[in-house]
Amino acid sequence: MKIATFNINGIKARLPRLVEWLDETQPDIVCLQELKSSDETIPTAEIEAAGYGALYHGQKGFNGVAVLARGTQPVEVQRGLAGEEEDEQSRYLEADVGGVRVASIYLPNGNPQPGPKFDYKLRWMTRLRERAKALLAAEIPTVLAGDYNVIPHDDDVWDPRAMAHDALMQPDSRDAWFRILGDGWTDALRSRHPAGHVWTFWDYQAGGWQRDHGFRIDHLLLSPAMADRLVDAQVDKDYRGREKASDHAPTWALFR
């Protein structure tokens, strides 16, 4: 089973690249982020024509997450996180597919920091941790996949000094990340690339892609049952270099 996460950066704008990637790589489950589209305007027919059933938690112009499943329909479990009833941002969607629980996650960016956006990011991470702990306690084989907007280690970025003041690398962001991991989750990509220097994002600005100035913010966190089945984890880097590509590359894990 191949499970992937892909911040598509606008599902309508990147639809040809998405369908192309689905056709060429055939992942079994895909967690998409940053759809930037309401549920009503998502190109559902094209996704279905590519052979995928889908669940969407969209939002017009911003955010938005989805779960796709090859040859079947994902079964929705939960959309959104408990803890802030007034939070209307579409950032979390949880579903069951083929005996596996997956969540598509688009964690808040948090910039500028300090400030209310950074405070929201940290609260959101606390809420995510509570949900993640409940999933561990239920012993459900789970993959929490998405754009976490956290650079966990200095070797997860081309130049730590360049991002030192960014919300993605603040001590509080990293602390919240490692608290989640410490509860019993495995960082799939890190487990296969312990030396780091594997990027999943390259900014459109300042020749980020051309100079390979990237960093790693797209992660798949595995419950113990899924970690035991992990075979490989990689980034489909070449897709970042295609015409009108997302600024993220698809990131995936393969399981027995």
TrEMBL record:
The record marks N149 as: Transition state stabilizer. Mg(2+) binds at N7, E34, D147, N149, D247, H248. The record marks D218 as: Important for catalytic activity. GO terms for molecular function: DNA binding; double-stranded DNA 3'-5' DNA exonuclease activity; endonuclease activity; metal ion binding. Keywords: Hydrolase, Magnesium, Manganese, Metal-binding. Residues 4-248 form the Endonuclease/exonuclease/phosphatase domain. Coiled coil: none annotated. The keyword Membrane does not apply. The active site is at Y106, D147, H248. The record marks H248 as: Interaction with DNA substrate. Probably binds two magnesium or manganese ions per subunit. GO terms for biological process: DNA repair. Its cofactor is Mg(2+); Mn(2+). It is an enzyme of class 3 (hydrolase). Belongs to the DNA repair enzymes AP/ExoA family. This is Exodeoxyribonuclease III. It comes from Sphingopyxis granuli.
